[in-house]
Design brief:
Order of helices and strands: HHEEEHHEHEHEHHH
Shape: globular
Number of strands: 6
Structural class: alpha/beta
Number of helices: 9
Largest sheet: 6 strands, mixed
Distance between the termini: 25 Å
Radius of gyration: 23 Å
Strand order of the largest sheet: 1-2-4-3-5-6
Length: 282
């Protein structure tokens, strides 16, 4: 009986909190839905509803990149000689000879989610101001840039910042942008390459500039997380202190319910996990 009471309270609190978030984001979804509906009415492909409009504006491209850049490092054993397609997008509408190549590192998400930066965000602003080419580069193991067939522990050995940094250096040294086959854009000789990233990607481009200074002329690190903290509970403190009081109160009660089960009523943990579809997770 006690567990049922916990669950009822849990769902009541969760439902109340989610409702406020959902209602606020409805307008944004409706706006995007209207744009997609317009595309549907003008195309025969009924799958257009699942396509981000910006992927139509910016076609995707792929560069074949080595899975393993470090064959002398034992931590990547067994080594691989195979390559994988690293996805990217670019906009050269502002380019003039002598302009830089500005590459936004997508970080820990699909590169599709970074396309707004190419359309009207920081990459667009920088490319326009410098007569450069704007690029969105996807990170290995995200989006479609998968070097391995699955996420087994063995295959995750290639998911390191070191390997991803090498991807970005390899990209600058080897990519040929469509329409620029006869233009020398090689780092240092043909064009200045500048990396941009935020949060994890911010730290990433700072490391990139340090490790590959001969490839990337500069890097802009926005909110770069250059220090890894294992248990950074303070991350949410500003939200708890300054968020909407009613919403924070509900979330606090919800956390207390779950914590009480996990700490004081451990017999109910399997049922709690099943409630969230986690019954097969150890």
């Amino acid at each position: 009986m006690a567990f049922q009471i916990y669950i009822v309270l849990l769902w009541c609190l969760l439902g109340s909190a989610v409702f406020s978030i959902s209602s606020n984001s409805f307008a944004k979804r409706s706006s995007l839905g209207a744009l997609r509906s317009l595309h549907r009415r003008t195309a025969n492909d009924t799958s257009i509803d699942d396509v981000d409009p910006l992927t139509i504006l910016y076609p995707e491209h792929n560069l074949s990149v080595p899975i393993d850049h470090f064959h002398n490092d034992t931590k990547y054993f067994p080594h691989s000689n195979v390559s994988f397609p690293l996805r990217y997008w670019f906009d050269a509408s502002f380019y003039k000879p002598g302009g830089p190549i500005i590459v936004l590192q997508s970080g820990e998400t699909s590169g599709v989610g970074r396309l707004p930066f190419l359309q009207k965000g920081i990459v667009n602003i920088l490319a326009k101001a410098t007569n450069g080419i704007g690029v969105i580069l996807e990170h290995r193991y995200y989006g479609t840039s998968f070097p391995t067939p699955d996420l087994s522990t063995e295959n995750l050995r290639f998911l390191t910042t070191e390997q991803a940094l090498a991807d970005m250096a390899f990209f600058a040294q080897n990519v040929v942008f469509e329409g620029f086959e006869d233009v020398d854009l090689t780092p240092g000789r043909g064009a200045a390459w500048i990396a941009y990233g935020g949060s994890y990607a911010g730290a990433f481009v700072a490391f990139l500039r340090k490790v590959y200074p001969d490839v990337y002329w500069g890097a802009i690190s926005s909110s770069g997380v250059t220090e890894a903290i294992w248990d950074f509970w303070r991350y949410y403190e500003p939200v708890r202190e300054y968020g909407p009081p009613d919403c924070i109160d509900k979330h606090t009660k919800l956390i207390n319910v779950v914590d009480n089960i996990l700490i004081n009523n451990t017999a109910y943990i399997p049922q709690l996990k099943k409630l969230f579809g986690l019954q097969d997770v150890l």
